[in-house]
């Protein structure tokens, strides 16, 4: 059965307008991607320029929509962590697009010379992008940059948990693109399920490990390749020689960005044995310095909704009931009404493996502080657990830094800071194991969403006839020489 026929039959008994629109949009894109020639470099750059213009024109609206969806979201964090990275990706991609798109000449085995070989990147077709709620603009539009650069068409499925931002994205894409090039599918779980069952040429999903597994299972029906950007418990390790106050400053900066609702936020920290109390005090000082008030501070983001807020509270209650000591950082001794969903930064001392906070990704402003007895012990602790999306190590000794990076496996690493590896367009961003599969950003994103086709071209004068039948002594000699 053809892919087009599959689309027509998918959910054919349902007449939900959102599902009908999704099927129709995909079918139109799929047919066009097979019938029309690949877009030129000029056309691709024009599409990237259109995306750049529409983002810049809606900077204020993006910040307002995110603020409304979260109940309170820092305008500066939206501009810094949603808008800026997307614009930086666009700038980097436009600069390098022509070089990435060129056929790449590769060496030919001597037995087949003077033939030539090259790798030719070409568009895959139609890309499905499923974005989460925590960075609803960056994690929808950064993959779109790679899709457009590679010459594809794309459908975005933003999260239903950030409806105002999703509506704004739909309006922006309608303004910037022909709907046969880029479209937005809005809706809840039913639309997301139907979306992941469409026979896309590639699906790029960002979200939880649990939902990622469901997306992969649905995509397998059509053998659709997937890139999964998931999460996990990203550790921060502090060596005893590193200044504790500086480590606290940089770890809390990464932890409290978007109130900890970041897939690569430090999930727990391992400090030298006997230093947990001192590190906790240093963290409290850093929070008070940067945010002397929290409850009504526009620069301190709220937890996105009541479900997530209650999940975090239950995790804290579980830790407390199992013997952990909780240190709430509340510099102005404010009251935090539950309905506002603002959770003060909370440190957890004495956390153990049987606590929910140490079993699941925290995804909030809660930081367990554990102790280690040296670099090897810290490495062993990390390696005994599922591989994380990110790892942070604080040390100035190059040999120990090399040891930690070589002996641990994580999606990415930042040394002596947090988060910043994701902002480097020349570094691939992706997970490993339960933290995800595949990577994008920069040229890696272009290659991920391209088919890098191998092409061999035979020369006019060649020795291929030597391998033709009838086989005999001449071919025996050639095989002996080759083997």
Descriptive overview:
- With 483 residues, the protein is of the alpha/beta class.
- The protein folds into two domains: 3-230 and 434-455, Aldehyde Dehydrogenase, Chain A, domain 1 (3-Layer(aba) Sandwich), CATH 3.40.605.10; 235-426, Aldehyde Dehydrogenase, Chain A, domain 2.
- It has 16 helices and 18 strands.
- The chain has helices spanning 3-9, 17-35, 41-57, 59-70, 75-101, 138-149, 163-176, 189-196, 209-219, 244-256, 276-290, 306-321, 375-383, 398-407, 442-448, 473-482, and strands at residues 104-106, 116-123, 126-130, 153-157, 182-184, 202-206, 226-229, 235-238, 268-272, 325-328, 346-349, 366-372, 390-394, 412-415, 429-430, 436-437, 439-440, 450-457.
- The strands form four sheets. The chain has a seven-stranded mixed β-sheet with strand order 10-11-12-9-8-13-14, sandwiched between helices.
- α3 packs across α7 and α4 packs across α5.
- 45% of the residues are buried.
- Residues 1-13 have low confidence and may be disordered.
Keywords:
single chain, 483 residues, alpha/beta, Aldehyde Dehydrogenase, Chain A, domain 1, Aldehyde Dehydrogenase, Chain A, domain 2, 7-stranded mixed β-sheet, 6-stranded mixed β-sheet, 16 helices, 43% helix, 17% strand, disordered N terminus
CATH architecture annotation name of the largest domain: 3-Layer(aba) Sandwich
CATH class of the largest domain: Alpha Beta
**Overall pLDDT metric:** 94
Shape: globular
| Strand runs, count | 18
- Please bin the fraction of helical residues: 40-55%
Number of helices: 16
